[in-house]
Amino acid sequence: MAEVDSCSNTGASRGESEKHQIVLNNVYKLLECPECNNIMSSPIYQCPNGHTICSICKFQVQSLCPICCVDMGSIRCLALEKVAEPLNIPYDCPYPGSKCLVREGISALVEHLKDDHDVGIYDTYKFNHRRVQLYSNEMEKASGISVAVFNCYGVQFCYHLEDFLVGMTPCYIAFLRFMGEDIEAKRFNYVLRLVGDDRVLQWQGVPRSLRDTYDQVRDDLDGLVIPRNLAFLFSNGNGKELALEIYGRIWIEH
């Protein structure tokens, strides 16, 4: 019977583990953005000299490479994006009630929302949304969800507006979620303003990321919450409908 040298095997296993950790550390170092030091994920941009940068910082440096000061243009570093892809944790689809799971990154998630859920994609950091409901005896039972994606600063934000109940009180809630990781979400701020009939109701905060589920953000009331009886005071309707005008703006917090 052959004897197994357990000490030798343990040493070999430890050596392989150390090599794996060294490789992983080198990969993370390769994916580190030179401007913000966060780990980059798709889309990753590079200048003509091969220096890379994350999409948020590319916007902040106005497409001027922070290493060699040349114009970065819109060159994507597809090789690094492929390296980063297996390190990305899949995203749950942000569409309420959806059970979809997207593994290919934010760009694929945006396309999924557009193609499979008919969500509008808008290139803007300022927006307004008009929500209309007809007056009826069934209005108290009515429910609805609106979803849109805003593309700005090289990243995306998912906007939600929903009818829901706080206890027994019918309300609306509007909020944004950053389509990415928590650490990047904290670099942004946004404001939502309900405007109508010479009145303004405003909410301002930091967007939650997609790592927080839709239900978590809604149940935390982390957004512009409008009780329905208050909404009537803001209505721009014609007497036959409840019409709400919500204005929003997103900016980078320096």
UniProtKB/TrEMBL annotation:
<dbReference type="InterPro" id="IPR018121">
    <property type="entry name" value="7-in-absentia-prot_TRAF-dom"/>
</dbReference>
<protein>
    <submittedName>
        <fullName>Uncharacterized protein</fullName>
    </submittedName>
</protein>
<dbReference type="Pfam" id="PF21362">
    <property type="entry name" value="Sina_RING"/>
</dbReference>
<dbReference type="GO" id="GO:0008270">
    <property type="term" value="F:zinc ion binding"/>
</dbReference>
<dbReference type="GO" id="GO:0005737">
    <property type="term" value="C:cytoplasm"/>
</dbReference>
<dbReference type="GO" id="GO:0006511">
    <property type="term" value="P:ubiquitin-dependent protein catabolic process"/>
</dbReference>
<dbReference type="GO" id="GO:0061630">
    <property type="term" value="F:ubiquitin protein ligase activity"/>
</dbReference>
<dbReference type="InterPro" id="IPR049548">
    <property type="entry name" value="Sina-like_RING"/>
</dbReference>
<dbReference type="Pfam" id="PF03145">
    <property type="entry name" value="Sina_TRAF"/>
</dbReference>
<feature type="domain" description="Seven-in-absentia protein TRAF-like">
    <location>
        <begin position="150"/>
        <end position="246"/>
    </location>
</feature>
<keyword id="KW-0863">Zinc-finger</keyword>
<keyword id="KW-0479">Metal-binding</keyword>
<feature type="domain" description="E3 ubiquitin-protein ligase Sina-like RING finger">
    <location>
        <begin position="33"/>
        <end position="68"/>
    </location>
</feature>
<dbReference type="InterPro" id="IPR008974">
    <property type="entry name" value="TRAF-like"/>
</dbReference>
<comment type="similarity">
    <text>Belongs to the SINA (Seven in absentia) family.</text>
</comment>
<keyword id="KW-0862">Zinc</keyword>
<dbReference type="InterPro" id="IPR052088">
    <property type="entry name" value="E3_ubiquitin-ligase_SINA"/>
</dbReference>
